[in-house]
Design goal:
The chain is α/β, with parallel strands linked by helices. It has twelve helices and 20 strands. The protein is globular. Bound molecules: inosinic acid (IMP). Inosinic acid (IMP) is lined by residues 15-16, 41-43, 128-131, 133, 135-136, 225-226, 230, 239, 241-242, 275-276.
Length: 440
C-alpha cells in the first residue's frame, strides 16, 4: 500500500465535527501539524484521560511533545488570546515550545473584535451569528491591505509604526459609524507589549519549515478549522466564516502547491449540527433534535451556544466530498446515536417541487429544500467500548454502510467516544499507517 505522508483534515459539515479529537489521535504519528486558516473562532475540544483541553489557535497536535505545531500564513491570530491559551496549556504541564507562527499570518486586534460585535448589532435580525472574535474584520483588513502581519510581533518598532498608521481610520469607523469610543494608541501599545515579547521569538518562515519536513519524508498533518459549509466561497453565504475552509486552502494557507495536499480526510458527525444563523435542511426541531443535543453535549466550545441539531445529510456530505476532493471519511460521535429508535439519513432533497440529489447553488434554494430521508432501525448497545468495525452492532454497521455508499467515499475512521482510545481505524484505510500509536 502507498505510504501517505501528508494528510489534510477538514470539517465536512458546518464545523464542530470532532476534528480536534481526530487530529489529536493522528498526530501521535505526525512530525508536524499545521493550521492553515481561521483563527480563535475555532474551538477544538481534546480529551486526554481525565483532562479536557479546549484549543482555539493552537493545533491539536500540541499535546504530543514531539510534534512541531505551526500557525500558517492563511490564519488570523489574536496575540492576546494566543498568549492566554499557551499559558493555560503550560499551567497544565503541556510544553508549547514547539509552536511557531508564520510571519505572514494576520493579527486580530481589539478593534477587529469591537467591529465584529458592532456589525452584528447593526445587522440585528439579519446577523450572521459570528463568534464575536473579530475574524471577519481581520480578514477584511488583510484584503484591504491595511492589516498588521504577525511578522510585526518580532519587531516592536514595526508593530508600533503599523498600529500608528492604521488606528486613526479604525477609530473613525468605530466612532463615526458605530458610536464606539475607539482605542487609544499608547494604551494599545502597552496592552500588546507582553504579547510581542512572548510571541516574537516564535515568528518564522513556516512555509519553509513544512517544505523541509516534507522533503525529508516526515509526516505532516494539515488541520482545518470550521467546515465545508462555512467556506467563504462554497458555504451557505452570507452565513459563513471569512476564510477558505476547504482542503485546497491547506496549500495556499501554508505556502505549498496542490500536489502536496492530495490526501484529504473529511470529518463528519453521524448526525449534523450547526451554530449561528442560516439554512439547515435536516435540522430537527422535535424531541429527536433535543435528544441529539443532550446526548452529544452539543454546546459551542468557543461561545457556549446550544447547537442546532438534526440528521446526517448525505447531500451535504457529497458536496463536501466534491469541493474538498475527499479521499476518506472520519465519522464521529456514532455512540451518540445509541438508544435512538429510528435513525434518519437524508439522501436527497425535494426543492421547489423537484427531487434533487445535489446541493443547491444558493441559499435561496436551500431554504426551500425538504430532506428526503431513508430511515434505519436504531440500536441500544453502548458503543463506547467498540474497538473494531466487527465490535459494532449490525444495525450500526448497516447505517454506516448506507452512509458510505450514498456519500461515495470510504470510511477510514469511526469515533465512538471522546477519548483517544475510543477510535476505530477501518481495515485498508489510507490512514492505517498513522494510527496505531495511541490505541491504548
Ligand atoms: P466567524 O467565523 O466568527 O466570523 O462566524 C461566522 C459563522 O461561522 C458563524 O455562524 C459561526 O457560528 C460559524 N463558526 C465559526 N467558527 C466555527 C467553528 O469552529 N465551529 C462551528 N461554527 C463556527
Amino acid at each position: 500500500m502507498e505510504t501517505v505522508n501528508s494528510l489534510v483534515i477538514v470539517g465536512a459539515q458546518w464545523g464542530d465535527e470532532g476534528k480536534g479529537k481526530v487530529i489529536d489521535f493522528l498526530s501521535a504519528k505526525a512530525d508536524l501539524v499545521a493550521r492553515f486558516q481561521g483563527g480563535d473562532n475555532a474551538g477544538h475540544t481534546v480529551v486526554y484521560g481525565a483532562n479536557i483541553f479546549k484549543l482555539h489557535h493552537v493545533p491539536s497536535g500540541i499535546l504530543n511533545p514531539k510534534t512541531l505545531c505551526l500557525l500558517g500564513n492563511g490564519m488570523v491570530i489574536n496575540p492576546l488570546v494566543l498568549v492566554r491559551e499557551m499559558d493555560e496549556l503550560e499551567k497544565r504541564g503541556i510544553d508549547t515550545s514547539n509552536l511557531r507562527i508564520s510571519a505572514k499570518a494576520h493579527l486580530i486586534m481589539t478593534y477587529h473584535q469591537a467591529l465584529d460585535e458592532a456589525n452584528e448589532l447593526m445587522l440585528a435580525d439579519k446577523k450572521i451569528g459570528t463568534t464575536g472574535r473579530g475574524i471577519g474584520p481581520a480578514y477584511a483588513d488583510k484584503v484591504l491591505r491595511r492589516g498588521i502581519r504577525a511578522g510585526a510581533l518580532a519587531d516592536p518598532a514595526l508593530f508600533s509604526e503599523r498600529l500608528t498608521e492604521v488606528l486613526p481610520l479604525q477609530n473613525r469607523i468605530l466612532k463615526d459609524i458605530f458610536g464606539h469610543p475607539g482605542f487609544d494608541l499608547a494604551e494599545l501599545l502597552a496592552l500588546y507589549r507582553p504579547a510581542l515579547e512572548r510571541l516574537g521569538p516564535l515568528v518564522t518562515d513556516t512555509g519553509r519549515m513544512i517544505a523541509e519536513q516534507m522533503a525529508a519524508g516526515k509526516k505532516v498533518l494539515f488541520e482545518g478549522a470550521q467546515g465545508a459549509l462555512l467556506d467563504i466561497d462554497h458555504g451557505t453565504y452570507p452565513f459563513v466564516t471569512s476564510s477558505s475552509t476547504v482542503a485546497a486552502a491547506a496549500a495556499s494557507g501554508t505556502g505549498l502547491g496542490p500536489a502536496n495536499v492530495n490526501r484529504v480526510l473529511g470529518v463528519l458527525k453521524a448526525y449534523t449540527t450547526r451554530v449561528g444563523e442560516g439554512p439547515f435542511p435536516t435540522e430537527d426541531l422535535s424531541e429527536a433534535g433535543d435528544q441529539l443535543r443532550e446526548r452529544g453535549n452539543e454546546f459551542g466550545t468557543t461561545t457556549g451556544r446550544p447547537r442546532r441539531c438534526g440528521w446526517f445529510d448525505a447531500v451535504v456530505a457529497r458536496y463536501a466530498a466534491r469541493i474538498n476532493g475527499l479521499t476518506g471519511l472520519a465519522v464521529t460521535k456514532l455512540d451518540v446515536l445509541s438508544g435512538m429508535e429510528v435513525i434518519n439519513l437524508a439522501v436527497g432533497y425535494r426543492c421547489r417541487g423537484k427531487d434533487i440529489d445535489y446541493f443547491p447553488e444558493g441559499i435561496q434554494d436551500l431554504s426551500h429544500c425538504e430532506p428526503q430521508y431513508e430511515s434505519f432501525p436504531g440500536w441500544d448497545e453502548d458503543l463506547s467500548r467498540a474497538r473494531s468495525y466487527e465490535d459494532l452492532p449490525e444495525a450500526a454497521q448497516n447505517f454506516l454502510k448506507a452512509l458510505e455508499d450514498t456519500v461515495g467515499v470510504r470510511i477510514d475512521l469511526i469515533s465512538v467516544g471522546p477519548d483517544r482510545s475510543q477510535t476505530i481505524i477501518c481495515k485498508g484505510s489510507q490512514i492505517e499507517n498513522w494510527s496505531d500509536a495511541r490505541q491504548e
